[in-house]
Amino acid sequence: MGLTDRQQVLLDTWLPSAELVKDHSWGLIGTLVLELMHDGERYIAKAGDAADHHLAREIRAHRNWLTPWTSRGRAPEFVHVDDEAKLLLTRFLPGELVQGTPAEWAPATYDEAGGLLAQFHQQSAVPDDAYESRENQRTLANLGKQHRIAPELAERLRAEIAGWPTPPAILVPTHGDWQPRNWLTDNGTIRVIDFGRADLRPAYTDLARLAAQQFRSNPELETAFLSGYGSDPREPDAWYRAQLREAINTCIWAYEVGDEPFEQQGHRMIAEAIS
């Protein structure tokens, strides 16, 4: 996949004669992530294809929720956007990905990440009586798609979800993929990238990826994170429902895009949730 004609025209207008430094695109979904150089400054351009639905979330986050971070240099600054063309331009954010570095297993990283997330969550809170019902229906719909969850287990999961209560929820701005692959470290400072899953959700949902990965491997990281966050937002029953939905949806999405390691993580998450 490349830029559409409209996206290329817009980029040429915003950054005439810009040089491509690096293609950071993930490859599993139809979003291009391009590092560009123009007049001695670096930028990141994100371009979505016709099927993309992540960029609209990213744009919404930049417009509404990122000020607590951008005001401190902790998230990329918004420069230009064209919603119809699915094109976003931000300033380049320095640092290296935390994932795969010693910082991924350093408690100080998680203390800081917890503090950053608390600032993000504290911006607003809205009640939603239908959130749990919507999420249950979405998960049930996903179970109707192609996947590799065993048929008897899938039926058990459907029956359990159908019997869940649907209490009111409090929704806050959430990142949606809060984990070290979306954090940068720069001389000990943690910064945040990738807002393609940002949305209003319960605060505890932003702990789901960490709980399935780094917290599972080293409980000290969870302790440090909660210290930075200031509290534990997880209520046991709601957290269980969220973990199982996350596990099922991980399995099915990863199977759809061909991310086998992530799919296997989803299967493990299901097994651990129901054990």
From TrEMBL:
Q: Where is the Protein kinase domain?
A: 18-275
Q: Which Pfam families match?
A: APH (PF01636)
Tell me the InterPro entries matching this sequence: Aminoglycoside_PTrfase (IPR002575), Kinase-like_dom_sf (IPR011009), Prot_kinase_dom (IPR000719)
Q: Which GO terms describe its molecular function?
A: ATP binding; protein kinase activity
Please state what the protein is called.
Answer: Phosphotransferase family enzyme
What is the source species?
Kribbella rubisoli
